[in-house]
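Hi R.,

Here's the chain you asked about this morning:
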Amino acid sequence: MGSSMDWQAWHDPYDDPASPLSHRLRLVQQHIGQWLDERPEEKLTVVSLCAGQGRDLIGVLADRPDRERVRATLVELDERNAASASARAAAAGLDELTVRPADAGLLSSYEGAVPADLVLAVGVLGNITDTDVRATVAALPRLCADGATVIWSRTREAPDLTPTLRGWFAEEGFTELAFHAPADVLFSVGVHRFTGRPQPLGTDERIFTFTFVQ
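And the predicted structure, written out as tokens:
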């Protein structure tokens, strides 16, 4: 990562139900749950970029009786957050969830984990440069299975990139299903469905460098 930010301490506001991070978490979990309800397949694949402590996906799967049909890979470079995610998954009995301690900005980190039916890019697009945001959206067809859903977040702090970002998704073959921009906070949460053609992963490319930019 490109800063001295304590990324484990960054998660502390999640413990306050009134915090903006908790608000964002609830929105993301709502859409994960809705996605699971709408996908009846016996096996589903999920990948999470810069997954942190995995609270979004783990929090949903822990309460679902159909958890075992989900095979998930959480990619997280910070060792303490990766360890926390692993502990949370074990406590929830999520045997099909793997925490991969790797750089999510490298396509090689996703080898064997994609194509995925659900791609989580929460807490990523607000912490990389605008150029890398564009490159990441362009790379998503390499991570997505046919008909995949992508759930993402991004700050709306000025200058607000989200209108342009939503256009980039459309250019790459994604249809917007939802966009949340709560008036009392700066975060936004988007949900897009991939209607294009999945692309080969390739493993030699860096698509972003994670740096705390706001």
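The chain has a mean pLDDT of 92.

Let me know if you need anything else.
M.
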